[in-house]
Amino acid sequence: MISTQAQTALFDYPKYWAECYGSAPFLPMSRKEMDILGWDSCDIILVTGDAYVDHPSFGMAVIGRMLEAQGFRVGIIAQPDWHSKDAFMTLGQPNLFFGVTAGNMDSMINRYTAERRIRHDDAYTPNNEGGKRPDRAVTVYTQRCKEAYKGVPVIIGGIEASLRRIAHYDYWSDKVRRSVLFDAKADLLVYGNAERPLIEIAHRIAKGEEITNITDVRGSAFITKQPLANWQGIDSRSIDKPGKIDPIANPYQEITATSCQQSSSEDEVAAQDITKTPQVIQLSQHRNKSWAQKNKPWLTTYINLPTYEQVKDNKILYAHASRIFHQEVNPTSAKPLMQRHGDRSIWLNPPAIPLSEQEMDGVFGLPYQRVPHPSYGKAKIPAYDMIKTSINIMRGCFGGCTFCSITEHEGRIIQSRSEDSIIQEIEDIKQKVPGFTGVISDLGGPTANMYQLRCKSEKAEATCRKPSCVWPTICGHLDTDHTPTINLYRRARKVKGIKKVLIASGVRYDLAIEDPDYVKELVTHHVGGYLKIAPEHTEQGPLNKMMKPGMGSYDKFKQMFDHYSKQAGKKQYLIPYFISAHPGTSDIDMVNLALWLKKHDFKLDQVQNFYPSPLANATTLYHTEINSLKNIKKDSESITVPKGTIQRRLHKAILRYHDPANWPMIREALTKLGLARKLIGTKPECLVPPASRTEQAHQHYKKGGKGKNNAQGFKTSPGQQRTHGYGKKPRSEGKPGLTRFSENQFTKSKQRNNKKD
C-alpha cells in the first residue's frame, strides 16, 4: 500500500556522511572544482540541457541544492556534447546515480516552433545560442550515461520526462510514442517537482537498496513485467465517471489485463461503449488478507489503462486513457496506473504529497548564488536575465487550462511559501544580484494570484477529481480571499531599498474579480504601465475546449482595472494574449475574434499558434478530434481541429489582420466563407481592405491570367472598390461596430455565394 501521508519531511532525514564537506559555492562542473572542494568523487551527478544557473527558478539548481542539503556531494554536467560518452565522464563515476533532465523546457519545444521550424536561439544557453542540446534530450543523455558507466543507475525527471511518463501523442513525429522510460532505458522516472521522491530514493540507494526494488515511492514510475504483489487491478473503462466529489465506489473488483489489453480486436474495442463495465476476472490467485484489502480495497487498487498498442492506433481509446490519466492526479485519492507496452508495463505511482509551507521555505532558503556559474564569464543567458530579480511565491495551478501542462507537472494543489521566506529572498536579491536597481520584476508563479488559495473543504479536496476548480464556474469549495496576497504585496513594498514590485506572472482575472480589494491593490501599486492577461479567445466554442472563462469575466476585470487606474491617476493598459488554431476553433471563430480585436483597437505583434505539448488535454483534442472533456463513447462528439500548415497559418494571420502581408490570405478565406462583401472593403466594419491594383495585377499574372479588361490589364471583381496601397488608412475613419457571425450565418452566406458563382 502507498501511504497518503508524507513519511519523512524533506529536512528530517539523517544526513549522508559527506555533509562534513559543507555546501559548495557552486555545484562543481569540473574535476578542478572538485579538487578545490576536496572531493575525490561525486555521490550524485546531475545532467541537464540548460546552462547551470544557481537560482531557484532553474530546476537543476533546486534539485542539486536540495540533495546537497541532505549531505550528498552533487556535481553538474550542463549541456554536454552528446555525440560521445566522453563529456559524461568529466566528473568521474557517481557513487550513487545519475540524475538526467532536458532542462526547464521540453527539448522539442525548446528546439522547434509550433510550425515545426528549427529555432536558432535558446534562452537557456549562454549568448542565446541554439543547438546546444539534442532532440529528445532525456533519451539521448540517459543512453550516454549508460555508455559511460555501465551499471550506474540513471533516474530521469524534469518537464520532458514528466510529460512523457505514459504513452503520449508526439506532435513532432505525428504519432503516439511509448513512455520515455522505454526509449531512454532509464531505471526510474520521477515526475513533477521531484524534491520529495528524489530525496527518498537517494537515501534508500545510499543505504544499499537496489534501485530495482524501489517501487513504492510516490511521484515515480518504472518498468515492470507483472503487477506489483498484493495489488488488485481494475479496468479503466469501469470508472470513467468524472466530475464527482464523492469517492469512487468500492470495493474494486479484480480483473485480468485481458479486457483492456488482449481480448478484443481493435475494431471491436472501438465499437464498444468504453464506459461499460467489462467482465470481471480474478487478476491472480494470491490475495492479500490484510485489513486494507478486506476493508479498504481501493487503497491497494491500481488502474489498467488501454495498452500502448491500442492507444497508438485507436483514437477513442487514446482519448479515454487521457481522461483517466487526468482524473488520477489528486495526491490524496489517485491510484497507480499501469499501461502495458508489449511484454512489459509502465507502472505509475500516484503523485507525491505536496510540500508544506515549512518545506517550501526550506527549498527556497537554500544557499543559491542567484547568478550563472562563473565558467560562463560575461556571456548573457536570456532566461536568467529575465528572472534574476523575480520571486516564485507558490507552485501548482488549479485552473486546468487544457493547453497548459502545469497541472500535469506541478499538480492542482497550491503550495505556498511564508511571507517571511519571500521577504528574505528579496533581501538576498539586494545582496547577490549584480546591478540590482531596486525593482522586483515579479512576485508570482504559475499564476500570480493563487497564493495561499485552497479548498475550504478537506473532504472535498481529498476526493475531488474535477480537472479545474474555476471552470465552468468557480467551485463553491474554493477560497477566493486574496487577503494573504494583498498583505504580501504591502510588506514587500516596505522593504528598504525596494522601489517597485511588479507582477509579471499571469493574473487569473476570473478569480481576481471575486476580490475587488486585490484588483485595487494590484492596479494601484504593481502594474508598470501594462498588465498582461490571457483571455485566449472571445468565442465560447474554443473557450470551452480550453476550459477558460467567457469574456464576461474579462469585461468586468477591465472595467475594474480602468476604474482603479483612473482613481490612482495612472494611464495603464491591459495587454491580452490570444491563441490561434486551438482545437475546437473554426475559421469563423477566428474571424469573430479578429473583429473583436479591431473593435477594441488591438493590433497584436506576436501571436502564439497552439502548440500540442505531450499529455496536455488539448493535445488529446488535437490528436483524436474527439471531445475528451466529456465521457468517451463510440459516438462521442467530434470537434473541429485546425490542422495542416495552411489552416494553422491562416488562423494566425487572421489574428494579425492589420498586417498587409496577411491580407491576401485573409481575403481568400473570407471569400470562401461567403463574407467577402461584408468584411472586405474600406468601411470601418470591414476587416481588411480590397486588393490594390498592384496586388490584383500580381495575382492575375501569378495565376496565368490573360486578356485586357481595363487600362492596367487586369480584372476588377464585381462591386470591388479601388483602395489605397498597403499601410495607408482607409477613407472611412472611426472604430467599427462588432459584427459577430454564427456558424449558421456562415453556412447560409456561403451557400448564397456559391449560387452566385
From TrEMBL:
Top-level taxon in the UniProt lineage: Bacteria
Residues holding [4Fe-4S] cluster: C397, C401, C404
One Pfam family linked to the record: DUF3362
Cofactor: [4Fe-4S] cluster
Species in which this protein is naturally found: Thalassotalea insulae
Listed InterPro entries: Elp3/MiaA/NifB-like_rSAM, Methylthiotransferase_CS, rSAM, rSAM_horseshoe, rSAM_sf, UPF0313, UPF0313_C, UPF0313_N
HAMAP family: UPF0313
Residue ranges of domain Radical SAM core in the record: 383-659
Family assignment from sequence similarity: Belongs to the UPF0313 family.
SUPFAM superfamilies referenced in this protein's UniProt entry, alphabetically: Radical SAM enzymes
Keyword list, A-Z: 4Fe-4S, Iron, Iron-sulfur, Metal-binding, S-adenosyl-L-methionine
Region (Disordered): 686-757
Residue stretches of biased makeup (Polar residues): 709-723
Co-factor: note: Binds 1 [4Fe-4S] cluster. The cluster is coordinated with 3 cysteines and an exchangeable S-adenosyl-L-methionine.
Keyword Iron recorded: yes
Protein's name according to its UniProt entry: UPF0313 protein
